[in-house]
């Protein structure tokens, strides 16, 4: 209890220590499930393999190597945030959980480096501190499969040079595009950089196709680890809830968080405190885990990435009230469409589709369900536009949904309001 009392008196450091402990836990777990030699061999396979959607690091490199890579990327991301001297808050937690989650399918410690360098060079070009662009830069590593793909096409030192140049160029371009894209969806898409990267990836893929090169979709999806990974995630989320309860003496007021629509920018750590944010993270993580298991799906790299992202963004926009309608919309769409609940793409759409949570938070649960249904249709058909190179494919789809759906909702609401006034 004395430890938690000490943390309570200096709550601004809790997100940092929480992320640091998670990184250490993942690195330790890697060597608990596999031998050091197996971990290193699998790690090499991960960083030397294509990373387009859907590439499960657990399948291609092994469980230990996947956790080692994720823990390493998380630790590196923590270091970058510290180096940039940004205060740790809700967006920090969202970013770090996303980096860790996607390092289980697509990102690795090698293919993200050129993009980070590109973001840093953009800050130098603008003559502004890197802290202003650090989050956009880390989120912008979503296009890291492009660098991996370039490395696969060419050989030797030329491949390394080309990979670095392409990654740096994309990392340099992401920040200005992301500033514009948030205006397009008006903050209703929590994965803004995913939308920006989708637009850039679409152009890049089109250029490649014009020169005769076609990107190949991956379908590497592991199974058989539900007991181990499900148990680990359940422990993590229950621990997170317990930590929040100990840090927040007024924990019974947790439902007050539901008053937020979640529309960007909604940093729950700054708005409601770290205690309530941790409780919310644990609850939302449990919802993601339960959804995956109850629909008969596997806990693996991609689904853990989705659950981790939900948990992280529970400190930056998501809560049960605004995610459940969207998730229900995605799942109920399987009743009328050709896909089924056991389709990996559907469960990923349900987990990542919570990017549209602000629509349910702002306009009500009915529109949240509609957004989920539309999102499930869109996300399953837009991956080819960017050659399956944008890991945040759901963020790209969510941006498109917002651009079409939000103006329609506002038009209908304004029309109904006008009619009521004239009656």
Concise description?
The chain is mainly alpha-helical and 423 residues long. The chain has 20 helices and no strands.
List keywords for this structure.
single chain, 423 residues, mainly alpha, 0% strand
Task: Give a description of the structure.
It is a single chain. The protein has 423 residues and is mostly helical. It has 20 helices and no strands. The chain has helices at 2-8, 14-33, 36-47, 57-61, 63-83, 90-102, 113-126, 134-139, 144-153, 156-185, 192-210, 226-247, 268-272, 274-294, 301-313, 320-332, 344-352, 357-363, 365-379, 393-422. Helix 7 (113-126) packs across helix 10 (156-185), helix 10 crosses helix 11 (192-210) and helix 18 packs antiparallel against helix 19. The longest helix has 30 residues, at 156-185.
Residue share in helix: 55-70%
Rg from Cα? 21 Å
Q: What shape does the CA trace take?
A: globular
- Structural class by helix and strand composition: mainly alpha
Question: Helix and strand string, N-terminal first?
Answer: HHHHHHHHHHHHHHHHHHHH
């Amino acid at each position: 209890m004395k430890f938690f009392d000490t943390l309570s008196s200096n709550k601004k450091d809790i997100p940092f220590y929480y992320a640091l402990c998670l990184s250490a836990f993942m690195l330790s777990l890697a060597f608990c499930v596999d031998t050091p030699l197996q971990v290193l061999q699998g790690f090499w396979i991960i960083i030397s393999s294509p990373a387009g959607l859907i590439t499960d690091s657990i399948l291609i490199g092994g469980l230990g190597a996947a956790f080692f890579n994720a823990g390493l990327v998380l630790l590196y991301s923590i270091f970058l945030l510290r180096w940039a001297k940004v205060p740790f808050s809700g967006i920090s937690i969202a970013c770090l959980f996303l980096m860790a989650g996607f390092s289980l399918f697509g990102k690795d410690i090698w293919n993200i480096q050129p993009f980070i360098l590109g973001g840093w060079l953009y800050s130098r070009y603008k003559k502004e501190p890197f802290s202003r662009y650090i989050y956009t830069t880390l989120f912008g590593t979503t296009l890291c499969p492009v660098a991996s793909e370039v490395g696969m096409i060419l050989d030797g030192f030329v491949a390394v040079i080309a990979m670095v140049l392409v990654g740096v160029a994309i990392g340099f371009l992401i920040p200005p595009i992301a500033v514009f894209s948030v205006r397009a969806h008006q903050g209703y898409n929590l994965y803004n950089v995913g939308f920006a990267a989708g637009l850039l990836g679409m152009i890049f893929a089109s250029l490649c196709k014009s020169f005769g090169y076609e990107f190949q979709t991956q379908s590497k999806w592991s199974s058989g680890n539900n007991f181990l990974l499900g148990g680990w995630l359940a422990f993590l989320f229950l621990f997170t809830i317990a930590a929040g309860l100990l840090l927040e003496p007024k924990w019974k007021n947790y439902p007050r968080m539901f008053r937020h629509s979640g529309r960007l920018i909604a940093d729950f750590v700054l708005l409601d405190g770290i205690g309530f944010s941790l409780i919310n993270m644990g609850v939302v993580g449990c919802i993601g885990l339960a959804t995956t298991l109850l629909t008969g799906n596997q806990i693996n790299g991609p689904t853990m990435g989705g659950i981790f992202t939900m948990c992280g963004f529970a400190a930056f926009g998501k809560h049960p009230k605004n995610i459940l309608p969207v998730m229900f919309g995605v799942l109920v769409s399987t009743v009328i469409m050709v896909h089924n609940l056991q389709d990996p793409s559907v469960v990923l759409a349900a987990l990542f589709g919570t990017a549209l949570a602000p629509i349910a938070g702002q306009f009500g649960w009915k529109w949240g369900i509609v957004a989920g249904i539309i999102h499930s249709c869109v996300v399953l058909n837009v991956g080819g536009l960017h050659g399956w190179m944008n890991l945040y494919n759901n963020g790209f789809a969510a941006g498109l949904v917002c651009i079409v759906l939000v103006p329609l909702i506002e038009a209908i609401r304004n029309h109904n309001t006008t009619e009521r006034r004239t009656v």
